[in-house]
Amino acid sequence: MDALAARGVRFDHAYCQFSLCSPTRASFLTGCYPERTGVLALNKSFRDAMPGVITVPELFQKADYDTGSIGKVFHGGAPLKKFDVQIGAALNKDSEILVEAKTANDPGDKPQAKVRGEGYNRTYAASLRPDADFTDYQIASDAMTTLDAFKDKPFFLAVGFIRPHTPYVAPKSFFDGVEKAKLTLPPFYREGGENLERMPPSALRPNNNVFRYADPNVNEARDAMQAYLAATSFVDSQVGRVLAKLKELNLDDNTIILLTGDHGYQLGEHGLWAKQTLFEGATHVPLIVAAPGVKPGVCKGLVEQVDIYPTLAGLAGLTPPPTVQGRTLQPLLQDPSGMGREVVFSTMMAPKGIIGHSVRTDRFRYIEWDEGRAGQQLYDYQSDPDELDNLASRPKQAERIARMKARLAAHLKAVNG
Fold it and tell me: What is the model's pLDDT at position 89?
């Protein structure tokens, strides 16, 4: 991924519109905000609210491109027309490897329970299995085979890797490559801890995707962080295999490549080991674009994932449908020092159906729950990058919060209109 970034533009301040896989995929694959797609949970399809919407791959299908979907791409609400090549992923395969690895590492550690097929208790472990036994290796192999089939015609290929989604399982060599002793844990795990009393309850989701039965201690937290980084390193190696195949086929110079993740993730910040929050860790996503005519660079401006659709369309010379609510990143690809958005927006559904919204500028983030009735948060990233000091109750911030609320109201009116 670093090599890809070195020959493209890396967007350092890209944000998802919803830090949960189904809503965020529905958002950037339609180019619409969650309020428009109607997808605020896992069990909802954007086809319910937008039955005729033209998704990204459909736009390319209509332009006579061969289209392929490998691994996890759409979570729900697939294109109206089938992909020319569509290969899913065995999502339970790595969970089985996890249980095997944990039992091998500690024969006395018996499974307490299985949760959604993701093993038990701590959902991470190093495995002695070869790389080829893992789901993401197979996804990369399927993508490489598809590239061979597509090489003589314009194509659109979406490759959706699974890791570093839980379970954090990877070959042991990738764990060995992470020096656990050098990892820096967030303030929550440092001496003195973190005071969460001024945090609205909705901000601290009870769901915990890594530690199912108890709050981890410092050693367990460090183990989990190592495992996350190992899983990330493993999937990075699989991205490399696909890019190497593209180069082997002499397609790397005339292919648009866009790399992103569906959301960020909390690695112990505020005691959370999960997605689906409105903090920086969960809403901030990777975004790299390498394309013909695009020079290497780093963009510091704010961008959103709804901007992916019009960017891909514009780079390919296609016209996105009028439903698309994002805006093309082409000007920033030509001049990464240019201005990004003034603000970016993210949405979340908390327990009991409480809706939260985040408004982020280049310096501040304002979060409100149930229009403020269930709590407010305001963070200054210049002085408080770890989001430890909620400024929302400070009288001198009242004017700033009023401006943020006005921006949010205008945004919601526009995207729902």
Answer: 84
The full DSSP string for 184-236 is: PPPGGGSTT----TTS-GGGS-S--SSBSSS---HHHHHHHHHHHHHHHHHHH
Q: What are phi and psi for residue 271, nearest 5 degrees? A: 75, 10
Cα(386)–Cα(237) distance, integer angstroms = 30
Residues 289/1, Cβ–Cβ less than 8 Å: no
Divide the 417 residues of the chain into consecutive groups of 10 and give the mean pLDDT of each group.
97 97 96 96 91 96 97 82 88 84 64 41 86 96 98 97 92 97 94 89 79 77 96 98 98 96 94 92 98 97 98 98 98 97 97 95 98 97 97 97 98 91
Q: How far is CA 261 from CA 17, 60, 159, 360, 414, in A?
A: 12, 21, 11, 19, 26
Per the CB < 8 A criterion, the answer to whether 233 and 152 are in contact is no
148 burial level (CB within 10 Å; 0-12, 13-18, 19+): exposed
CATH of the domain at 30: 3.40.720.10
DSSP labels, 268-322:
SGGG--SS--SSHHHHEE-EEEE-TTPPPEEEEEEEEGGGHHHHHHHHTT-PPPT
Separation CA 307–CA 309 (nearest Å): 6
pLDDT of residue 358: 98
Angstrom distance (rounded) from CA 267 to CA 288: 22
Element at 119 (helix H, strand E): none
Helices (H) and strands (E) in the chain, counts: 13, 14
Domain that includes residue 77, residue range: 2-416
Contacts for 364-373 with beta carbons within 8 Å, 24 or more apart?
Answer: 364/400, 364/404, 365/278, 365/280, 366/392, 366/400, 366/401, 366/404, 366/405, 366/408, 367/203, 367/278, 368/405, 368/408, 369/200, 369/202, 369/203, 370/202, 372/405
Query: How many domains are there within the chain?
Result: 1
Instruction: Please report, for residues 294, 303, 304, 308, the alpha-carbon distance to residue 335 in angstroms, rounded to integers and kept in the order given.
Output: 9, 14, 17, 17
Buried-state track 281-312, b at ≥16 Cβ within 10 A, e below 16: bbbbbebbbbbeebeebebebbbbbbbbbbbb
